[in-house]
Design goal:
The chain is built from 11 helices and 8 strands. An 8-stranded parallel β-barrel has the order 1-2-3-4-5-6-7-8, surrounded by 5 helices. Bound molecules: 1,3-dihydroxyacetonephosphate.
């Protein structure tokens, strides 16, 4: 039985008190890991140690970014070792908002994944095409290029131990999720490409972009969709719980 992942990316939201309230609400509606379903939340850096000290019971912790170096003169940056130290098990790398705003490249994202794994964090590597790229029929080509460059920088071994999130940029925060056909098609293309690069281990592939309680079950029914990376809906306990429960149902 393959494991499903439901990962909440809280982005730049919630003060510590609000983060604690959300965690308590998630526990009260059973939005926690079960056999075959891993539940992860990725709060802002400022809430990480508060949540670890409070106790997460069945919810794993991830960060939203890390630097490529262990330590040094990198003002404003946070290393994978520091994230491990505050209780993280995962780190998102290469989110499209960082590609857009911090001009992160695939090579840099690959180096971050390598660094994260060296310090015991499992990378969640984000890829995905822009709207114009999809409209001009370039989706597979873009995914192919992103993954090739990440593998070149990180190595096939690192990618085989990571999680990959397919997040079409046009679906993020728009309410316009990919259809199950579009998600399955992109995931199958990613899987075929990983196979070509000798990534033999079955890498979990998550879909992200306007995932809601209403569309989660359909997405989880796709043979190559192993879970979801959830933005807006991860800030609402009941809705996130419904997504977690849909993941659980899909394993039965
Ligand atoms: P939304 O679920 O808000 O579209 O965000 C998706 C995302 O960017 C998760 O990383």
């Amino acid at each position: 039985m393959r494991t499903r992942f439901v990962v909440g990316n809280w982005k730049m939201n919630l003060l510590r008190g609000e983060a604690l309230e959300l965690i308590e609400a998630l526990k009260s509606v059973d939005a926690v890991s079960h056999e075959h379903v891993s539940v992860v939340v990725c709060p802002p850096f400022t809430a990480l140690s508060t949540l670890t000290e409070h106790g997460l019971q069945g919810i794993e912790l991830g960060a939203q970014n890390c630097h490529v170096s262990q330590k040094g003169a990198f003002t404003g940056e946070v290393s994978a070792e520091m994230l491990r130290d505050v209780g993280c098990s995962y780190v998102i790398v290469g989110h499209s908002e960082r590609r857009r705003d911090q001009h992160e490249t695939d090579a840099e994202i690959g180096r971050k994944a390598l660094h994260a794994l060296q310090f015991g964090l499992r990378p969640i590597i984000c890829v995905g095409e822009q709207l114009e790229e999809r409209q001009s029929g370039m989706t597979h080509e873009v995914l192919h290029r992103q993954i090739s460059e990440i593998i070149e920088a990180a190595g096939a071994d690192v990618v085989s131990k990571s999680v990959i999130a397919y997040e079409p940029v046009w679906a993020i925060g728009t309410g316009l999720a990919a259809t199950t056909e579009q998600a399955q098609d992109a995931h199958a293309a990613i899987r075929a490409h990983l196979d070509q690069h000798a990534v033999t281990h079955r890498v979990p592939l998550l879909y992200g972009g306007s995932v809601t309680a209403a569309n989660a079950a359909g997405l989880f029914s796709c043979p190559d969709v192993d879970g979801a990376l959830v933005g807006g809906a991860s800030l609402k306990a009941m809705e996130f719980a419904q997504i977690v429960h849909a993941a659980r149902d899909s394993t039965r």
